[in-house]
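Write out this protein's structure.
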Amino acid sequence: MNRTPSSTEQSPIPSVFTRRRFLSLSALTTAALVTGCGGGTTVGGSEEGVGGFEGTYDGPAVTLDYWNGFTGGDGPAMDALVKRFNADQKNITVKQNTIEWGDFYTRLPAAAGAGQGPDVGAMHLDQIATQAATKIIVPVDDVASALGLTEDDFAASVWQPGIYQDKRYGIPLDVHCLAMYYNKDHFEKAGIDSPPTDAASLEEACQKLQQAGGVEFPFWMPNQWPAHLMFLSLLWQFGGEPYGGDGTEATFGSEEGVKALTWMKEQVDKGFSPANVDIDAQYTAFKNGQNSITWDGIWQINDLEESGMNWGIAPLPTIGEQLASWANSHNFFLTSQAAQDTNSANAAKVFIGWMSQQSAAWSDAGMIPALNEARESPEYENSPQAALGEQVDNLHFLPAVPGLGTVQAETLELAVNAAILGQKPVEEALSEAQSNATELMQKNAEKFGG
């Protein structure tokens, strides 16, 4: 946190509010900033709300350290937004530090513990509970209040996972999910007029693609990333849930889970996929014209746009009984480090508020705006991801359970890998992983205090 000479200029959240949001902002009281997940004093050490956020910042000039992991095709879009913010402000400057996501979650706790972490940042929604439980980040309920934001303003299901122990720790920027990509040239050659929408039409398309020649395996089934995201999507399609509501029990080994993973393994057994597809190999093969259909994240859109291939995008086929897809979200957060200083905290909240309102412009990153009204903007409606249509209303997010990401990596992902490779029967792999996951979740509940 670098502070330069004071300025009396006021830095507001930009004037892109609806009237309802403006009225909500006018009625905002000085909410306290809680510095821990279970309570604490407000910024400035007072219990009377000193330093509470009222939607603007009129303190001395502040330079904020902003961390994120937008190192791929989404990076230029974030760079442009940060430059716009800095140009708009009189007394807030944001210094961006972009780190690979894998390193981001390793470096953040260590840096925060040493007082050398960011003031503000963006992280994945499924990381929020863990960072809140360890008190690396602090609540931002007052930012949501200042913006007049409620659950109804956002894509379905993205709002609740940002709440941990009844406090909000993240403000959503986007939602990103799996989609089906297909090679238009291959489809035309095989006489396929439209992308498949269910299990039967997907199987028929794979058969036609094989008969047309050119690809031996039209739909590669990975056994590593993003295989577990495909599994979760199918689990929800069959009506199952991966985890119990209280965060102490895994349920992905259910009948619905067995159906989901069995279908994935069948794509190999039916000859639509090679037997051993390593991490991201299916996507590389798609870009090289070695397969015709792949399921992957919408974060691949910008890369495909630059590839020069003739590709299309569509919602995942409904393999189960209902349309569903795994999803995640980039959320803005405020660190406990910034919360120790009223000026840094309130300036960071202005930045979070400003960025939240750029959800439509963030479509350039290949993402789906989290704000409903932003999905009505020309920026989004003219984007490739707009083709996902009703899938946006059928996205599923993991629950706000601290430590869940590690649990998943050590159990569910291993089960999916073993089953697709044929190393274990589907039911056995899931049952064993579910038992191990439940044990780890119960230990985490004790560790993080529920």
